[in-house]
Write a structure and sequence with these properties.
The chain has 3 helices and 16 strands. It is mostly beta strands. The strands form 4 sheets. It has a 6-stranded antiparallel β-sheet. Strands 1-6-7-8 form a 4-stranded antiparallel β-sheet, covered by helices on one side. It has a 4-stranded antiparallel β-sheet with strand order 12-11-10-13. Strand 14 and strand 15 form a beta hairpin. 26% of the residues are buried.
Length: 227
Amino acid sequence: MIRRVKMKLSENTVSVLKNFSNINQNILVKEGDTLNTMSTMKNIIGRAKVTESFDKEFGIYDLNEFLGVLSLSKDADLAFEESFVKVKNGRSTVKYFYSDPSILVTIPEGFSPPQTDCTFRITQQVLTDVSKACAVLQLPDVVLTNDEDGTTAVLVATDLKNSTSHEYKVSLDPIDFDANFHFKIDNLKVIAGDYNMHVVKEKNVSHWVHDNGVVEYWIALEATSGQ
């Protein structure tokens, strides 16, 4: 007899899935209470611990489509069967088939995060303001560096390929070391909130840890960092 596992997805879990869909359109959900995603360019990894615990592994090829199915039924029950999930609410039911895991982009087995060198505090307000500035001024890059006095970290929206680029700058916390870390604004696809952002200088990787303690990202720095 096939075992059918039923559950509801919390609003927080749906929010995580919506955010992860901006990083990668597909996802492999593994057994347990942790969701993972990795961009097709392999330069962004997202991880979140959720309230639900999944009893079986299943793949979703088009996460936005799956989220659209969930939106058809408010507070739907999900029944996970051998090759598909039934999304049921009242008299309506959607049968949604899983994807073959071999065609999905997933994080490597045994992914081991490197040790970080330094930490910065990045609030939601700062992220919102910098993202808005990038959109208004059509700037593709974000630089985390020292202010002119060298004692304070600043986040700068700019265009690194244009020496006469407009700039938007916001001050962060005091620092006692040299910083010169470059990001593409399109890669900062983190869920709303305040973060402690750690940097691994040697690996050109940043680690963003949400204040809720359950959502984190690893985002690659641009190769021009430190130059």
